[in-house]
């Protein structure tokens, strides 16, 4: 019985920690090169592997925290930074007030994406999984 309990604890621990981003000490050279091309003045990012197997670089630029994602092949995916509600464009604040006035905001990010261009990701608190709503600067939902 004790053996089964230990095995169950180990399996649960692996499942829980396996869902988290993993810190990495070895980043592929192609990813490092792509990062240097995109951010030539940044010398010491912290790297993690996200749930999709992409490499996330965490760094600060002029005191602002950034996360830039790169594929294992070194292709830049997106860069995001957390911002406050007051830093959102007025049109987005108005859209939130109109459509989500009763929702509590968990996080707001400004995102520059290779596929979607620039947008804002507003995460609303909900039971279970939070709800993400993406906006263009015009206030249009994506």
So, CATH architecture of the largest domain?
A: Roll
Whole-number count of domains: 2
Largest sheet: 8 strands, antiparallel
**What is the typical, i.e. mean, pLDDT?**
86
Structure report:
The protein contains 3 helices and 8 strands; from the N terminus they run H-E-H-E-E-E-E-H-E-E-E. By secondary structure, it is α+β, with helices and mostly antiparallel strands. The chain folds into 2 domains: 55 residues, Nuclear Transport Factor 2, Chain: A; 60 residues, Nuclear Transport Factor 2, Chain: A (Roll), CATH 3.10.450. Strands 1-2-3-4-5-6-7-8 form an 8-stranded antiparallel β-sheet. A hairpin with a 5-residue loop joins strand 4 and strand 5. The N and C termini lie far apart (52 Å). The N terminus is likely disordered.
Nutshell version of this structure?
This protein has 142 residues and is an alpha+beta fold. Helix content is 26%, strand content 35%.
Please name the defining characteristics of this protein.
single chain, eight-stranded antiparallel sheet, Nuclear Transport Factor 2, Chain: A, 142 residues, 26% helix, alpha+beta, 3 helices
Topology:
Elements: H1 2-18, E1 22-23, H2 29-38, E2 46-49, E3 55-61, E4 64-70, E5 76-82, H3 90-99, E6 105-113, E7 117-124, E8 131-135
Antiparallel strand pairs: 1-2, 2-3, 3-4, 4-5, 5-6, 6-7, 7-8
